[in-house]
């Protein structure tokens, strides 16, 4: 942007201010969406503070953080020196299949931080954010199928939802049709996503997702969005994409941001123009 030979420099404070506002907002919005809370569960049993078990829990969670900087899934077994058989801890993390490694790592860090605060002293805990899942326990669960419902939510039904139901059913049929551990499907403005934890076999994943999708279809009726989380898989659909929140206001936020940035840009242009006039006035005044 320039005005008669007086450019708004890429290193000028005003440009940096504008850029920082826009970039920091979109980065924050992205991370906030991935780190939105879905559910958490904690064992009623507690371990002794400063015990070998606590050391093994910390080892599992640290391993998850470190591994998430390299991949979107891993499972662990921790038995540090001095541990007895009942001190062994098992764990895993799983990120949503479309996340980049940096986003996966950021999500796992947030999940573990929240899990630590939610399940203080618990011998087992699980926490699901929009973008990732973390679990640890004192009994081995890795590789075991688990179709227990841990979280299910449906939006309020709508009265005239014939087209929505047709598209929703098409999306869910596509998700149930088989494939990878992470699946996406869309029909018009309805989108869906489904995923299994990667410790399951292909057949176990298909079995788990079939159960989640059938429950989602029967329980959410004519709802514009629905979530069904089982122990080792989930299925979701929404009119506006993967973020199935009745209070989702991303469009309004983006509109507000656009107006805000537009106003700042207008002020920037005005400042540059007034600076130009001021310099021109001083130049003319000095020439007299």
Automatic annotation (TrEMBL):
Keywords: Cell junction, Cell membrane, Disulfide bond, Host-virus interaction, Membrane, Repeat, Signal, Transmembrane, Transmembrane helix, Transport. The chain crosses the membrane at residues 257-281. It is found in: Cell junction, Plasmodesma; Cell membrane. Residues 1-29 form the signal peptide. Belongs to the cysteine-rich repeat secretory protein family. Plasmodesmata-located proteins (PDLD) subfamily. Residues 35-141, 142-242 form the Gnk2-homologous domain. The keyword Cell membrane applies. This is Gnk2-homologous domain-containing protein. One of its GO terms (cellular component) is plasma membrane. Pfam families: Stress-antifung. PROSITE patterns: GNK2 (PS51473). CDD domains: Gnk2-like. It comes from the Eukaryota. InterPro entries: Cell2Cell_Antifungal, GNK2, GNK2_sf. The keyword Transmembrane applies. (Microbial infection) Interacts with Grapevine fanleaf virus (GFLV) 2B-MP. It comes from Castilleja foliolosa. It is a single-pass type I membrane protein.
């Amino acid at each position: 942007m320039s005005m008669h030979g007086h450019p708004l420099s890429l290193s000028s404070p005003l440009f940096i201010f504008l850029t920082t506002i826009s970039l920091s907002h979109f980065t924050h919005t992205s991370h906030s969406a991935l780190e939105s809370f879905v559910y958490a569960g904690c064992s009623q049993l507690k371990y002794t503070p400063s015990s070998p078990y606590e050391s093994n829990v910390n080892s599992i969670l640290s391993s998850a953080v470190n591994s998430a900087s390299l991949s979107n899934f891993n499972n662990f077994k921790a038995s540090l020196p001095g541990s007895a058989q009942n001190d062994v801890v098992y764990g895993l993390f799983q990120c949503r299949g479309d996340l980049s490694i940096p986003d996966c790592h950021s999500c796992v860090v947030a999940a573990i931080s929240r899990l630590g605060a939610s399940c203080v002293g618990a011998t087992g805990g699980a926490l699901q954010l929009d973008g990732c899942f973390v679990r640890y326990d004192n009994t081995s669960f890795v590789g075991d199928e688990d179709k227990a419902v841990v979280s299910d939510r449906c939006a309020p039904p709508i009265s005239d939802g014939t087209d929505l139901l047709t598209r929703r059913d098409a999306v869910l049929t596509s998700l149930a049709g088989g494939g990878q551990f992470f699946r996406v499907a869309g029909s018009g403005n309805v989108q869906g996503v489904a995923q299994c934890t990667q410790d399951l076999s292909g057949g176990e994943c298909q079995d788990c997702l079939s159960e989640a999708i059938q429950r989602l279809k029967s329980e959410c009726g004519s709802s514009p969005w629905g979530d069904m989380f089982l122990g080792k898989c989930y299925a979701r659909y929404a009119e506006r994409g993967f973020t199935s929140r009745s209070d989702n206001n991303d469009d309004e936020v983006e509109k507000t941001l656009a107006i805000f940035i537009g106003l700042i840009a207008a002020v920037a242009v005005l400042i540059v123009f007034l600076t130009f006039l001021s310099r021109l006035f001083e130049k003319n005044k000095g020439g007299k």
